[in-house]
Write a structure and sequence with these properties.
The protein has about 220 residues and is α/β, with parallel strands linked by helices. Helix content is about 40%, strand content about 20%. The protein has a five-stranded parallel β-sheet with strand order 2-1-3-4-5, with helices on both faces.
């Protein structure tokens, strides 16, 4: 899942980026509105986390600009503005959720999971692929009831394919889910992760459509 964080508090942003990485998300960070707009237009995003008190533009103004781009990317406002009028204004401007600072990171993760489910056809807390169960809340995968150890990026690929089981993802689309701007990506990185998933969960789990990309197959 690809997340863009627009936050001018560098210390807070660095902590959030590290924590979100540990939770399995690919994260890009912008410290002001102009930079955030460039990221938003260039990347294939799954979620935007937006501070309102930006140094160059008010976050609500930026949000209205982003919504004019006609994208369905979920937006979570994360701000110190805690008045009811501020919350109403944020939601009316196009935000999908509103969380005030200070906040518990566990709550932020829970809200991110809710927004990610809203933006996919599958909204259950668990995804089932034959004898494989994917727990969205805990990022755990079980095969025949036994917990399987997946890397963060292996889980991200599996989650992306399981969210949209009938969709073929190109290598480039999957890389967008796995890596932030500036990360080094080798030409065969997706193939390596897919190979590892097949070894751990079954060789029929992911099908390679030659010249097109990858699609969820079945377990076993």
């Amino acid at each position: 899942m690809r997340v863009l964080l627009i936050e001018d508090d560098i210390s807070l942003a660095e902590g959030m980026v590290k924590a979100l990485h540990r939770a399995g998300y690919a994260v890009d960070h912008a410290a002001n509105g102009a930079e955030g707009l460039r990221y938003f237009e260039a990347a294939q995003l799954d979620l935007l986390i937006l501070d309102l008190g930006l140094p160059d533009i008010d976050g609500l103004v930026l949000l209205r600009q982003l919504r004019q781009l006609q994208t369905g990317v979920p937006v979570l406002i994360l701000t110190a503005r805690d008045a009811l009028t501020d919350k109403v204004s944020g939601l009316d401007a196009g935000a999908d959720d509103y969380l005030t600072k200070p906040f518990a990171f566990e709550e932020l993760l829970a809200r991110i999971r809710v927004l990610s489910r809203r933006n996919t056809p599958i909204r259950e807390p668990e995804l089932h692929i034959g004898n494989i169960v994917i727990n969205i809340a805990s990022n755990e995968v079980r095969l025949d009831g036994e917990l399987q150890k997946l890397s963060r990026r292996e889980f991200a690929i599996l989650r992306a394919l399981a969210d949209r089981p009938g969709q073929v993802f190109s290598r480039e689309q999957l890389e967008e889910k796995l890596y932030s701007w500036g990360d080094e990506v080798s030409s065969n990185t997706v193939d390596v992760h897919v190979h590892n998933l097949r070894k751990k969960l079954g060789h029929n789990l992911i099908k390679n459509i030659r010249g097109v990309g990858f699609i969820l197959g079945g377990s076993g």
